[in-house]
Amino acid sequence: MADEITVTEDGHIAVIEINRPPANYFDRKLIAQIAAAAADLQAGGKRAIVLCSEGKHFCAGANFGSGEMAADRERAAQELYREAVRIFEIAVPIIAAVQGSAVGGGVGLACAADFRVASPSTKFHANFSALGFHQGFGLSVTLPEIVGLQQAMELLYVSRRIDGQRALEIGLVDRLVPDGTQRSEAIAWAAEIAEYAPLAVQSMKQTLRAPLVQKVRAVLERELSEQARLWATEDSKIGIAANLAREKPVFTGR
C-alpha cells in the first residue's frame, strides 16, 4: 500500500496522499486503497480526512493506454466503480486538495469529496466528450449537485477546461488559495471541522449526502452501460487515440 498511497495521521485528522506522480492515474487497486484507508481512519476515530496527491497533478483519471483499462476496459471500469462507491459512503468529511490538473475521472474523484481546495492555476477538465464516451465516476449526479445542471452540461458537452478561479465562481471549488498552499489550507480546514462534535458532524453528513450516495450507486450502472456502448464506436477510438497522441480529434459520428 505504501507504494500507492501514504497515510499520515495527526490527532483527529488524517491525510491520504496518492503516490503515482506526475499524473496520478488511478485504477481499481488505487481507488480500493483510498476507500479502505478512509474506512480504517473512520473506524479509528478520525474526524476529518484530506485527500491529496504527490507531484505535479491531482489526478488524470484512468490511463487508457496501459494496464487494466487497456486490457479489458468494461470489466476494469465495473470493478473500479464498485470501489468508488465506498468513498462516497465514508461518513467522515473529506476535503480534496487539488493541485495541477484534475482530468476526466480525476474530476470525479475530487467531486467525491465534501469540499475542494484549489489555486488559480489548478485546472479541471471533464474531457469525456473529447474522448468520445460518456462521463463516469458518478459525475452525472455529483457535478450537477455541486455546480448546477446548466454549468454541468456546459462542462461536459464541450469538455470545457476551466481554471481555479472559474471553478470557484461556479461552485466547483470551495476555497481558492495561493499556489502551493492547497494542502496546508485543506489540513487547516480539516482541523477546524475536527474541533466540533464528531458524531453530530458525521450524522449531518450522512443525512445531507445519503440521497447523493443512493443516486451515485444507481447512476454508475447507467454510466458504465453507456461507456461500454460508446467505447465500441469509431468516435471513441478516434478520441482516445488523439488524446494519447496529444492531437485534436476529428469525429465521424459513428
Strand numbers in spatial order across the main sheet: 1-2-3-4-6-9
Structural class: alpha/beta
Low-confidence stretches: none
The profile of the biggest β sheet is: 6 strands, mixed
In terms of DSSP E residues, the strand content is 5-15%
**Helical amount:** 40-55%
CATH topology annotation: 2-enoyl-CoA Hydratase, Chain A, domain 1
Whole-Å distance between the termini?
Answer: 42 Å
DSSP summary: helix tally: 11
Strand-helix topology:
Blueprint: E1 5-10, E2 13-18, H1 28-43, E3 48-53, H2 67-71, H3 73-88, E4 94-97, E5 101-103, H4 105-112, E6 115-118, E7 123-125, H5 128-131, H6 139-147, H7 149-157, E8 161-163, H8 164-170, E9 175-176, H9 182-194, H10 198-231, H11 234-245
Parallel strand pairs: 2-3, 3-4, 4-6, 5-7, 6-9
Antiparallel strand pairs: 1-2, 7-8
Helix pairs in contact: 1-3, 3-10, 4-6, 6-7, 6-10
What's this entry about, in short?
With 254 residues, the chain is α/β, with parallel strands linked by helices. Helix content is 52%, strand content 15%.
Provide an overview of this structure.
The chain is of the alpha/beta class. It has a single domain (1-179, 197-254), classed as 2-enoyl-CoA Hydratase, Chain A, domain 1, CATH 3.90.226. 52% of the residues lie in helices and 15% in strands. The protein contains 11 helices and 9 strands. It has helices at 28-43, 67-71, 73-88, 105-112, 128-131, 139-147, 149-157, 164-170, 182-194, 198-231, 234-245; strands at residues 5-10, 13-18, 48-53, 94-97, 101-103, 115-118, 123-125, 161-163, 175-176. The strands form 2 sheets. The chain has a 6-stranded mixed sheet, sandwiched between helices. Helix 1 (28-43) packs parallel to helix 3 (73-88), helix 6 (139-147) packs across helix 7 (149-157) and helix 6 packs across helix 10. The longest helix has 34 residues, at 198-231. The chain is globular, with a radius of gyration of 17 Å.
